[in-house]
Amino acid sequence: MPLSDSDFMRYSRQLLLPEVGEQGQLALKNAKVLLIGVGGLGQLAAQYLAASGVGKIILADDDRVEVSNLPRQLLFDGGDIGEYKSVRGSQKLMQRYPMCEFQSITQRLSAKNINRYIEGVNLVLDCSDNLPTRHTVNQACIKANTPLVTASVAHFTGFLFAVDMQRAPKAGCYHCLFPQDTQVTQNCSTAGVLGPMVGTLASMQSLMAMNILMGVGKPFGKLLRFDGLKFSWHEALLSQDPACPVCRIYT
């Protein structure tokens, strides 16, 4: 679909960027994104992507809003407690961004059902909060050759990186970095987290996603780690594990 006159007015500041322009804005408008996890990361990433002009966003989460979510999940309020995050999030986003199409999934994604939701998607954002889901998403994205942007945050530490077997096969995948038998002792529920920490990673995850959709920048091949106490970013190069059972067979 071409850009309309209202699109040119709404996204005028983005269109001024030479890296974006009409071609980049069209790429966003025609994009379909699957966002897994509508918690601290996902609810903010969904807002950024919808506001930027992404055409369709699928929100997947089987959790319901709880009062402990409200300090960092700013899309929700007290009236949403007990409601499915994916459903309530879609309803609220639809009111704010009617130019974007939303779909909600209220079942937990697993190896049995995730493939049908990834089909036809241009990009996946993993905003989940548990290791099994992240591995399931990673495997499905590699199998479907769909780019993946994954972020995580706990305490004052956040991680962010992208996976794409077509554009950066030598950078490996999530399993290369965190094998399936990795023991994770900290998450938001056990270690705690501040809202701005989650917001920082969600903003970066959204920016990385937009760059991939528009084909600009160099988001692949590096792991970004944010230290919220020292206010510093650390970058490490990623490389494929030659023995990885997940992504090695696709390269």
UniProtKB/TrEMBL annotation:
Entries under InterPro entries matching the protein: ThiF/MoeB/HesA, ThiF_NAD_FAD-bd, Ubiquitin-activating_enz
Pfam families named in the record: ThiF
THIF-type NAD/FAD binding fold domain boundaries: 11-246
Family matches, as PANTHER family: SULFUR CARRIER PROTEIN THIS ADENYLYLTRANSFERASE, UBIQUITIN-ACTIVATING ENZYME E1
Protein name in the entry: HesA/MoeB/ThiF family protein
Organism: Shewanella nanhaiensis
Taxonomy of the source species: Bacteria, Pseudomonadati, Pseudomonadota, Gammaproteobacteria, Alteromonadales
